Amino acid sequence: MIIKNINNSEMISSSPDAWKLLSDNSADIIKLVLKPGEEIAIHKNPLKVIFLISKGNGCFHTDNNTYDINENSCILVEPELERAWKNQSDHDLEIFVIKLKA
Fold it and tell me: What does the pLDDT look like over 29-80, one tens digit per residue?
């Protein structure tokens, strides 16, 4: 068993803040914290990804669509689909990212 949190995990980015909580052969789990006004530019990922929004709300962009996403929401994104995030609120947006490798 492994128990991790942001205090005992590797910080992999500071803009936005991101920590790699767990990584094994089947998945990577990353915690993102987007401060008000922060965004993640449009990009692709070769893996299937699950986003779990644990706190706050923001805008999720994929293809030609933009979605308002709220706390306690979950998004499944297929491989190679373009995606971007923006925190347009006055509070932090916290997202758990699960990258499925299998």
Answer: 999 999 999 999 999 999 999 999 999 999 999 988 999 999 999 999 999 9
Q: How far apart are CA 54 and CA 9, in angstroms?
A: 18
- Against a cut of 0.90, is the pTM above it? yes
* Superfamily in which the 11-100 domain is placed by CATH: Jelly Rolls (2.60.120.10)
For residue 49, the Cα-to-chain-centroid distance in whole angstroms is 9
3-state secondary structure 18-34: EEEEEECCCEEEEEEEE
**Contacts by residues 13-19 (CB-CB < 8 Å, ≥ 24 positions apart):** 16/40
Q: Which residues pair with 29 in a beta bridge?
A: 22, 98
